[in-house]
Task: inverse folding
């Protein structure tokens, strides 16, 4: 124990304790990533880990090898997810950067999901140096300015080809599609994805980046692709620096690959901006997996990868991209003339890595496989004959038939509904209606992914015989009861559409609104089809429609071909019995046979 008569010694010891505790606190702040990619002439934005957040109250001090130090203000960069409604591509959420003093008193569990970031203003003459956090030195992976690649395209012809490569972006037709417009807007609000908005709209051209930095917002060519932030915040400069750093990384990646192997660079860029034509619509079909793209970027910027390996890594990534997509549009809306077979409709799109048509093989358990030539990036509709299976006492289950598709090394299987649905008391269940396909669920062949509508908007129904049949017409008395959950029932343009009869040649289609208005939007020109009697009611959190079907909805074989879709007041679209692609004109159909509804026997 130190005696009280030695106050000077006590003071020295206390000073040493404070000094070493300061070192300990400094050591508690370190980068989250072991590798730091620094771009010449750009500030370095680093995500950091801190054991004790109180160490951030005076900022984060870093230094480079020559001793120059930088005191950096820490910001919490967090994401508040959107309660987004189903769309072809989904907005992630709202990004915000909050300074330490603003968020320090907010518990981590109550903050937007994220981490601490700092912006280090590295001078241009710091190239080759490392960065120090306390007593720990971190090697910087110095990357060239994105415009450096332009200078390396030394010949006039080479430069012209390189300029053409950077000009690759979406066509004006694609950029005008509502789904593409929505996706670009989503990327513009995300600092980690804003580079994709530029890639889609101007090709991520480094020359345009320089023009933007030189002329600012006054440059009309570039002003429409700036990062768009949700609120005015002190952290907006940091979010813009993140966006600019991500943009530069991908400019460096694409430029490097092009200088090594121009064909591979074009293929990578095409995969990042790929769209496809679905009937009258052009929809995005690119890789939206952020973690996958982050891994690719990390590998392609590695200091331990030579040029040949870098190109091989890019080619390996291209090989992992879907070679095609396929989905079931309709199971029973078309019947083969002269037979009892169904002609289910599938949509197939070839996504070749090289230009040209593709050969698709279809094995549908027929005598021989079907071969079809599929054009690239364009929806091809295919119909495969399927012999239906009857539902009976010996075979009481609805049957399915599996078909196998093969295109080069890509394979996929789909189950088609191969039985008519017998109507049995007390009712036939309708729904729930399914959300439209999303880009990721289609690319990954996940029919159930994002298919469920939120409970506050879900649509269900039943079909039953509400009145006894007449002797004159045994098909009379059938009623649909549809329940439509809604946050604000009766508001906006909420509507059901009931489709009757064959797909593409419907007997009738009626649009029904919560106020019981019935509009015929399609009908068979060879017969008079009366509108149904409709009664609707508005309840606290839903509206319901009672629809008495006219006798003529049953075809000459006594079958009801039925499909239903709904677009609610907020534009959320859903359908039954199959999911639809945005812009698809009508839903699939299911055949319901009412013969045995009044039977007391088990089917």
Result:
């Amino acid at each position: 124990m130190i005696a009280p008569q030695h106050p000077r010694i006590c003071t020295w010891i206390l000073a040493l304790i404070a000094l070493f505790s300061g070192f300990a606190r400094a050591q508690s702040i370190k980068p989250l990533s072991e590798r730091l990619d620094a771009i010449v002439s750009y500030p370095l934005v680093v995500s950091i880990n801190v054991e004790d957040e109180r160490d951030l109250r005076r900022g984060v001090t870093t230094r480079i090898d020559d001793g120059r130090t930088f005191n950096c203000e820490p910001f919490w960069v967090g994401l508040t997810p959107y309660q987004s409604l189903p769309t072809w591509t989904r907005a992630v959420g709202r990004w915000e950067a909050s300074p330490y003093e603003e968020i320090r008193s907010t518990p981590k569990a109550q903050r937007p999901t994220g981490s601490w970031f700092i912006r280090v203003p590295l001078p241009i003459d710091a190239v080759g140096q490392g960065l120090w956090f306390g007593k720990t030195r971190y090697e910087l992976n110095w990357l060239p300015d994105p415009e450096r690649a332009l200078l390396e395209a030394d010949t006039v012809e080479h430069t012209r080809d390189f300029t053409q490569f950077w000009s690759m972006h979406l066509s004006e037709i694609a950029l005008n599609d509502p789904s593409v417009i929505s996706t670009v807007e989503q990327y513009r609000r995300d600092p980690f994805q804003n580079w994709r908005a530029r890639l889609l709209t101007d090709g991520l051209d480094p020359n345009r980046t320089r023009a933007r930095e030189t002329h600012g917002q006054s440059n009309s060519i570039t002003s429409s692709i700036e990062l768009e932030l949700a609120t005015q915040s002190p952290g907006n400069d940091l979010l813009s620096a993140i966006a600019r750093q991500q943009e530069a990384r991908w400019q460096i990646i694409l430029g490097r690959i092009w200088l090594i192997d121009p064909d591979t660079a074009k293929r990578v860029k095409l995969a990042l901006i790929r769209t496809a034509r679905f009937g009258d619509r052009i929809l995005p079909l690119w890789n939206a997996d952020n973690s996958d793209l982050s891994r690719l970027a990390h590998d392609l910027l590695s200091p331990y990868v030579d040029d040949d390996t870098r190109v091989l890594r890019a080619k390996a990534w291209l090989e992992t991209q879907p070679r095609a997509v396929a989905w079931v549009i309709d199971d029973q809306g078309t019947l083969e003339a002269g037979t009892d077979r169904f002609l289910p409709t599938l949509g197939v799109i070839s996504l070749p890595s090289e230009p040209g048509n593709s050969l698709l093989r279809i094995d549908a358990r027929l005598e021989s496989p079907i071969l079809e030539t599929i054009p690239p990036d364009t929806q091809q509709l295919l119909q495969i004959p399927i012999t239906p299976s009857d539902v009976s006492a010996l075979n009481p289950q609805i049957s399915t038939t599996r078909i196998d598709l093969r295109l080069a090394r890509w394979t996929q299987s789909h189950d088609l509904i191969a039985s008519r649905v017998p109507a049995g008391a007390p009712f036939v269940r309708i729904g729930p209606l399914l959300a439209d396909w999303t880009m990721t669920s289609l690319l990954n062949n996940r029919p159930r992914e994002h298919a469920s509508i939120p409970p506050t908007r879900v649509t269900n129904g039943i079909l039953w015989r509400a009145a006894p049949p007449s002797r004159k017409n045994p098909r009379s008395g059938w009623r649909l009861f549809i329940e439509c959950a809604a946050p604000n029932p009766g508001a906006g343009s909420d509507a059901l559409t009931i489709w009757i009869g064959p797909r593409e040649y419907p007997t009738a289609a009626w649009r029904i609104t919560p106020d019981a208005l019935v509009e015929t939007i399609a009908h068979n020109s060879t017969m008079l089809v009366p509108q149904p009697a409709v009664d609707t009611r508005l309840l606290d959190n839903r509206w319901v429609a009672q629809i008495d079907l006219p006798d003529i909805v049953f075809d000459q074989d006594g079958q009801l071909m039925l499909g239903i879709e709904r677009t609610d007041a907020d534009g959320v679209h859903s359908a039954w019995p199959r999911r639809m692609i945005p812009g698809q004109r009508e839903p699939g159909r299911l055949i319901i046979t009412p013969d045995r509804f009044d039977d007391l026997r088990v089917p």
About this structure: The longest strand covers residues 113-120. The mean pLDDT is 88.
